[in-house]
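Exercise 7.
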Amino acid sequence: MKAKLAQYEKKVLNGKSHVLAYKYLDLQNLPHWHMECELVFSESGETDVMVGNTVYRLTPGRSVYIRSGEIHYIKSEKDSVVSVIKIDPELISGSLGNRAPVCPYIENRYPFYPAFDDISRESISGKDYSEAICDSIIIRLLAEIFRGERTEEIIDRTDGSSEKYKKLLGMIDEQFAYITFDEAADFMCFSRPYFSKYFQRMSGMTFTSYLNVVRVGKAVQMLTEKSVTATQAAQSTGFGTIRSFNRVFKELTGYTPKNLPNDYAFIRSETGGLVDSDPGFDPTLSSSVRL
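Solution. The predicted structure, written as tokens, is:
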């Protein structure tokens, strides 16, 4: 797919399904966006969620609502558990109208966990009308949230910086081997100090750290899918020396390039395999554990 949409997560809802529920331990993902709306709920520990250019700290029992197409990332502290529900925006608009909470952070508490549990149970039951039941569960929960929170009519609030940031992520994905901090700052038309702060707020990590994640992800694909040596992978992904490559690779994956399992996936698909050639990707890092 085109590089400018490299961080667009593949559509996970298909067929009759309008709702999917996941639970993670130590969830870490890269900045991305997708068409589905999303509810993120902290069950234990603390989790940072960046959405709408703001980072929200979720403590147990707190949640955020992410609109369709909004850039976001999720970064959990160690041993934290978060639940995520993805919802087809057409299901929401068809039942509740074209509205959303004004603030992503949900101020009041709602029966999120029982709804998540019921959706999870119905999704794997295989019974007739399970999709319809899941739809009704999430619509009831959202109706309670929309009733209790301040909402607004959804309009296109995307600013120029957010759109440029999306394109920058695509440019990094395409030019990962040679793109520099200065080139990225120039692309955004920001000063170096402001770009450094902006990128860290939007990505949850520094530009260098993010670039290393992308480069290691590409190197993992090269090492598992092609017959290349660690030196060739290091050169192809833009690392200056094999020593630097080995150090960063081990820090991020827990393996040396030579000891990497053949089925290892650093940035993986929902089914646990390597990112495939379908549009989009799963931004979840391999350090996250699906419960």
